[in-house]
Design brief:
The protein is of the alpha/beta class. The protein has 3 helices and 3 strands; from the N terminus they run βαβαβα. The chain has one domain (2-65): Rossmann fold (3-Layer(aba) Sandwich). β1 (2-3), α1 (10-17) and β2 (22-26) form a beta-alpha-beta unit. It comes from Alistipes putredinis.
């Protein structure tokens, strides 16, 4: 699942309960750090959450590969 506004990770947690993969983006590094700190405690999760700078024209494929 791709979520462009990941926020506090509520959808991430829901997808983990469904055993689904998840890619989330958000513009707030503080939120990304928070979600990563919580999710790092769950060893079985296959997820990615990235910071997106909306002023940068970096291609989507580069953002998810980083």
């Amino acid at each position: 699942m791709l979520e462009l506004f990941a926020g506090s990770g509520t959808t991430l947690f829901a997808y983990e309960n469904l055993r689904k993969d998840y890619i989330g983006f958000d513009i707030t590094q503080k939120i990304i750090d928070y979600v990563n700190s919580i999710m790092s405690e769950w060893s079985s999760i296959n997820y990615a959450i990235k910071n997106v700078d909306v002023t940068d024209r970096q291609p989507f494929s580069e953002a998810i590969a980083a």
